[in-house]
Specification:
Structural class: alpha/beta
Keywords: Membrane, Transmembrane, Transmembrane helix
Protein name: Alpha/beta-hydrolase family protein
Largest sheet: 7 strands, parallel
Number of helices: 20
Mean pLDDT: 84
Shape: elongated
Helix content: 40-55%
Strand order of the largest sheet: 3-5-4-6-7-9-8
Low-confidence stretches: 1-13, 15-39
Number of domains: 2
Organism: Oerskovia enterophila
Pfam family, one: Abhydrolase_9_N
Radius of gyration: 30 Å
Length: about 625
Amino acid sequence: MQPDVTQKPENAPDAGAPEVAEPVGQAVPAGPTDEPGARSTTPDGEPSARPSRRRRAWAWLQHYARRFSTTGLVLALLFFCYSLTPSLIPRAWYYQALITGMSMVGGYGIGAFVEWFALKVGLRIRWSPRVSRIAWWVLGAATIVLVPLFLVLGARWQHELRALFGMPEQAPANDVAVVFVAVLIAIGVLQLGRALRRVAQWVSLLVDNIMPKPIARFLSGVIVAVVVVLLFNGVIWAGALHMLNNVYASANEQIDPKLAPPTSPDRSGSPESGSSWESLGAEGRRFVALGPTQAELTEFAAGGDVIDPADVQEPIRVYAGLDPEGDLDATAQRVVDELDRTNAWDRSVLVVATTTGTGWVDPGMSSSLELMHGGDTAIASMQYSYLPSWISFVGDRSTPPNAGKALYEAVYEAWSKQPEDSRPRLMAFGISLGSFGAQGAFSGLQDMTTRTDGAMFVGTPNFTPNWTDFTTHRDAGSLEYSPVYEEGAQVRWGTEVSSAANIWSVPGTWETPRVVYVQHASDGVTWWSPTTLWSEPDWMREPRGPDVLDAVEWRPVVTFWQLTGDLFVAAASDIPAGHGHVYYLEYADGWSALNAPDGWDEDDTLRLKEQMLTKQPAASSSTG
């Protein structure tokens, strides 16, 4: 609680530090001086009423310091220390600075509110000036000791986390930059909050004359909060989305000169296709132009005895770019038209893949499927947005499931009309925001197993309804990061580092059709949630996953900002396979569990993983 040595105005911006008496100016010889306690002089040597520049700066600094809440500063220091503890993903100094700054202002806000509330209900401790000075010296000494101590501990924890991931050591952290930038961020956010409070006070003055003061103050706060929310949602956020949409739409139209339009009629964007090369968008063009070549497919088939190299085919990849009017059903119909044109109904496997925000299809998924089946496959996908997934995480959670539903239902309707004894096995797939979108086509597990021949969902965000339902109702004793649902009868999770093979570890029969979830204990995309601001998730109460440090613990406010940082770097180019949001090796296990060709065994799965390692992407776009 704040020491009380002076009576502060009731409407002071912050309950805070004690008043500090200003030094009294003393007589000095005539002439200019910059001493803090000296008077300024005129050109004639006479004393001036205007204080010196340094004195004014010192007085302003004292005045500014008095506005801080003592309790708030204590919690800000505590949250600073907590912010340097490890989370799921190794982080660079600038992410650390952002996490630390936001954590500090969160701690300060909590402390200031507690202090304000205590004063309002009459809990006021009156300390003597001497005790107050001692308290401030203790806080200063604690800051001097704890800040460098936790910077050192934070560097050690980051080193341990990188070692756990198998990542090389990082250059020494820029600790000075972390502290400086974090303080700037905290002060900037705090000043914004103070500015809003001044607006609320001004509104309170306007309504003071027509209603009692307590009601006026409460009403003014509500009015300002509502206006800010409406302004943000209706003007600022809408304007930001419009600007970002234009930026990413421009990037979507740019054609990579390294990519050539496909010549095979089995690809969208080819001369025979009803979808032009230009209409596919940046990610769609990459999807149809790349993938294993006929020679690579043949060579892989020849390395085993599952697929006859003479039977290798050109894989079908169909894709539709974003409809100019945003009509998801029209876009999905263009995909079905491409399936009809390529006669995809004669292939062994047809995968309906819901993309991430920008239209990205994971090349690890498509390549591993095509290598496994010797190209006897078809993959259907479409674009539904220009915006990266992280923006949709925040501002648009309706379009991805709507798009997933439109695409799957259009393909399912056409597939259902094909002869049952010759049509391909129909699979659903999605990664990251694409997993959230793909599951929008299904009301639950029964719907999945009724209308698919199998489904694989990878790195699923935990706001996905089906995932949340299965995880919440997991069998007693199973862990949140690796749950067991209904004894693994039809849905199972793969969570091993660099392998999803533990999806077979649950005893009992795994019935078909099967549903596979693949996720990592260290994937910030899966574990990020606003509820971590105030609530500890199960996975932090339970034994940690294989690539999560035991030192990872839940702290209110701080953990949310740490996971927010993890969300952005989970698929960074330096994150090794099997950690974070990097999954391209696990597809070999997932597809082998769902729909491996006859004769496929564990040695073939290992051979496929070795092949995928040679095609390791330079960077992942799964959060794009």
